[in-house]
Amino acid sequence: AGDHSLDALSQQGFLEEAAVQQEKEAAGSGGGGVWGMVAAGGKKVRLRKNNYRRRSSSSSGNMVWMDDDEDEEVEEDDDQNGGGGGNERQREHPFIVTEPGEVARGKKNGLDYLFYLYEQCREFLIQVQKIAKERGEKCPTKVTNQVFRYAKAAGANYINKPKMRHYVHCYALHCLDEAASNALRRSFKERRENVGAWRQACYNPVVVVAAAYGWDIDAVFNSHPRLSIWYVPTKLRQLCHVERSNAAAAAASSSVTGGGPDHLSF
Amino acid sequence: AGDHSLDALSQQGFLEEAAVQQEKEAAGSGGGGVWGMVAAGGKKVRLRKNNYRRRSSSSSGNMVWMDDDEDEEVEEDDDQNGGGGGNERQREHPFIVTEPGEVARGKKNGLDYLFYLYEQCREFLIQVQKIAKERGEKCPTKVTNQVFRYAKAAGANYINKPKMRHYVHCYALHCLDEAASNALRRSFKERRENVGAWRQACYNPVVVVAAAYGWDIDAVFNSHPRLSIWYVPTKLRQLCHVERSNAAAAAASSSVTGGGPDHLSF
DNA sequence: AGAAGGACCAGTGGTCCGTA
DNA sequence: AGAAGGACCAGTGGTCCGTA
């Protein structure tokens, strides 16, 4: 393991700590790294109702993290895990709408961190691909379950499939039109909108980009190397389809006005 | 439905009947075509132990087929379904090794017919892709379960996944080096080898082709438009991997003789 | 209330092995 | 015996909904 580049991180000061953590995690692929050790230093790993999970190294990617001298008493100071003697793993802090470069304060994570998780998944995919090629096994081109499993095993416990799939179209906008993405973030932050509202608002700008590709959203994703490794979200696909139909209907009716019914004006 | 081209068929006289059947089948996508009607004219469809299956229009793609006037008494003359009052569907006739252009005689199917089944699957895939695009759904690039289900629903009951997967590497050789494929068929026919032996013998020539691509069998498959829609068989992938390792080891040992251990001679 | 993610489920790729 | 294919199974893509 362990070729997680620092260059992507240096752009945001607040990511540098994460970068160091990430480096250490990657070094101990399979259960290790500082966070894994720290968590193992706490109590026993929780029992799941079901054992779908193959490993359970515990760690958190929260950008707000405990002080160094609390290593052996992980999150004991965290009221999220209240009085109940629980050693349940805490969830990631929720995202809030932040401007580019802004560090989220309090028990929150910012959107630069969200997008950084997509970059991390890409690194994990590249590792999985490398291993598959060495072994002569079939090689994934997308971020699959296998990649999420690998990330977890490498200690990136804060990466999970539902979360990553949930925000793919937001990351798509960030990749495809960073200026528009940044403007949207600033606007939604100013209006004090929550993450859900911002997330919803990310759909349309991506559909607008897709219009230039004849609403072929697969072509849009494939046009961008960092985006092409992600499955197109169902809802985004549906929105593009609806939009294409609308455009086709509009073109047809305008051609009725402007010419014969089978004549395309544009 | 129904754009099954005749051009691919006219090359072999014995395929012309199948071509007509195929046209009719395709016209009645979803349970129809002449074969489906014929089969429905027989007795009741069999009951499966399990109901994995969604539809079961019955038909056979055997190249040796009943006479036209037996339409209402399907396969009653076929001793494969012996005395037992069974209306069990008969299996396809087994393949035998035939030369290019040769019609299999008796209750056998020839290799041109085998390869023709791959072309049919491609046509079904194209149909499925067309429908998916119209609906704005995700569009398969390979022959998937969905395509096999579509083929069955379209009445091509003689197409099934285990069979198609079993002979993919044979079809690959046919696509990649038809001359070599033809020579192998003639040789194995002459030696009166069975289909299993011929099938085994198809692996190595494909690996030889792959050598020119650095043993990247995915690249080999992707290089050919009719082959690229098929998943690379696991065993073929493994053979290429082993062969690459062998070649690397040979190169390393020859470079020890010829130069330093890290020097590549070629 | 808004949000994170464990857990589930329908349908997949892959092929074994009971069948003829 | 050699071969065709129903049927199964482990792990997938997708996302709901019990949880915090």
UniProtKB/TrEMBL annotation, chains A, B:
Keyword terms of this UniProt record: Activator, Developmental protein, DNA-binding, Nucleus, Transcription, Transcription regulation
Principal cellular location given in the protein's record: nucleus
GO cellular component: nucleus
Entry's Gene Ontology BP terms: regulation of DNA-templated transcription
Region of interest (Disordered), residue spans: 51-94
Molecular function in Gene Ontology: DNA binding
Superkingdom: Eukaryota
Floricaula/leafy DNA-binding C-terminal domain location: 82-248
Biased composition (Acidic residues): 66-80
Localisation per UniProt entry: Nucleus
UniProt record similarity statement: Belongs to the FLO/LFY family.
Function: Probable transcription factor.
Protein name: Floricaula/leafy-like transcription factor
Organism: Erythranthe guttata
Full-protein residues shown: 112 to 377 of 377
